[in-house]
Fold each of these.
Amino acid sequence: MYEFSIVEKLQKLEEDIQRHELKYHQKRVLVSKSFHFDAAHHLHCYEGKCKNLHGHTYQVIFGISGMVDEIGLVIDFGTIKEIWKSEIEIFLDHRYLNETLPKMNTTAENMVVWIYEKMEEALKKQTNDCRIEFVQLYETPTSYAEARREWMSHE
């Protein structure tokens, strides 16, 4: 049986732990955050069910890497959410993708690259030195497209 305990003394900064101890290492770390959105689209030049207007509940997963800062964070998960909400989701959620995205066939393969590029552009505006490592775009729970930094890099 697991024994539960109540914290007796809450750790205090500058008393129980010093500011310089908050950063534990100097390694690159990948953090990941996922989001969902609902959207409609149809495919051109495709002979199958997806040539007709239909919708999906998509899932997007971002992998972002960087060196931890002075308190041990790569990037605040809230910052990733702000970027998603203000710079990417507005073009996707409850939208007709053929209308709101740049001219393209709205395949998962095309969309994942567009989402990757939008996040990459937004991260360049951040003060930390984070970089996008991958984006996965699930069109269904078992089908996804992925864009990776090594495939997208213009370096």
Amino acid sequence: MPATLITFLMALAFCAVHVFVGRLHWLDRTPRSKWLSFAGGVAVGYVFLHIMPELGAHAGTFERATGLPAQLAEALVYTLSLAGLALFYGLERALSASRDTRKQAEGRDRPHHPVFWLHIAASALLMVMIAYLLNHREDQTPAGLVLFFAAMMLHFVTADFGTRTHHPEIYDARGRWVLAGATLVGWLLGVLVGLPQIAIGGLFAFVAGGIVLLVLKEELPEERKSYFLPFLGGVVLYAALVLGEQWSVA
């Protein structure tokens, strides 16, 4: 099967998560669903076993492309990652503050519409980048692509579920279609537009920071009453798969 068709099917699967996450009613309960904690564990495993090493690889790309000293090139890559984390942290804080303000003023447990749409727009931008990277990743092996796809699928379940809880009416009416459309746009750009390696490295670094923040935001807050053992199971399973892949290649 052609690689482009495989990544297109993966992009469609991402779209399915955006569109149908609202139907996963068994996830919407307190204490937090064990499956969400498991998905969070897999996503954390992805952060440490794929994102961190790939950031190091992209630092080498920055060094070769710019001629900068190795330490400065590495610092630039991690600064881009920090920018992604800071952007999504700011958006999450804005959502929370808007939700609290509206609850006190109107008795509605919803953020103001412009704030929620700003969050959707940022999430759509992140989706464009992630879908683009389906066709332009540092690790181009089939196993690496499958692990990336699996980790992102589970991450989108937790991230979309969290986004939808802020304003399910807007998310179900229009927000989910914006995210699905952004996914297909990103995949199409990945097929039609080939960026320089330094630009791809910058995209990945920015995406990495956003993913790190969203993973930790969804799994760690105390009020969510997360389950440790399913979370640990997700971490261990993903680590075992990655180590198995590396062992087979060695």
Amino acid sequence: MTPHALAKSAYAPQNALTNDPKRIEFAAFTHVTKMLTEVQSGKRLPLGYKAAAMHDNRRLWTEIAALVADDDNQLPKDLRARLFYLAEFVAQHSSKVFSQDASVQPLIDINAAIMGGLNAQEAS
């Protein structure tokens, strides 16, 4: 990015994305799911890219686990429990994917389901 572009973006009005937690969540899921899809595609990617994709996805789900484990979280308890379980599954499955013992597709499917839920919430 050029210095001019950096300055322009620094002084630009705040994007609506930064004000809406649902959009931030959706953007995070979109980013990591795109990376996972590229890993799944079988393209010749550097090993570091696969590691970054798995790490970013795992980090996103670790953050979700921490948020839903918080007693002050206002989501229904059953939803919090299901999200926490998914976070545990993602952590375990990610290790299997990285060691090439499992497909990345379940991680993509989980993220896509979450993105669908976030889209449904925004539409209502």
